[in-house]
Amino acid sequence: MRILLAEDEVKLAEPLKKGLELKGYTVDYLEDSEKARTRILLYRDEYDLILLDLMMPGVDGATICKEAREAGVTTPIIMLTARGETDMKVKLLNLGADDYIVKPYSIEEVVARMNAVLRRPEAALPTILSVRDITLDPTKHTVTKGGKEVSLTLKEFSLLEFFLRHPNEAMKREEVLDHVWSFDFPAFSNVLDVHMKNLRKKLDDYADQDPLFETIRGIGYRLNG
Length: 225
Prior knowledge:
Strand order of the largest sheet: 2-1-3-4-5
Order of helices and strands: EHEHEHEHEHEEEEHEHHEE
Radius of gyration: 18 Å
């Protein structure tokens, strides 16, 4: 799952980014409000969720949230704010924020809020993902095959989740790398091929069916449902 974190306070942002990455999330971090606004408006389909600071210099988070919703951006947005007054919370929700977190916060609270937002019907993200006899639970961070739990690394889990959200689609290498690693990760790296090889070893033993993961020459990979 790919997260955009827009926060100008580096002392808060860096521990949050690291904590989310340790839990398996891919996090793009921006401390400039103008860059954050541009990224949200132009790359709206690249992110599963946005963590947006309210009081950034330049364009504030409330304005960015309002503009994003007016532009048709439906990505869930959680506001990070030091202001806990009721009227501010109401204002943020009315502007289109899905939730808010009052500073200081713990990584556990942030993850819990994220999971709660992504479970809502309007987020259009199913709680449990499955194909054939493979099931992935993003909240519990578990994968089973034929009812038996399979141990995956954080990146393998993120890769599988990404493909399960795009079954039977030919996904370009650049799309996969951008979503599972980071916005600036080099597309020519062979790290994706290594992880796909490992996923196949752990999950792809369908001798009587099309392979679970198919290599599309010149494009990337496809998960066959």
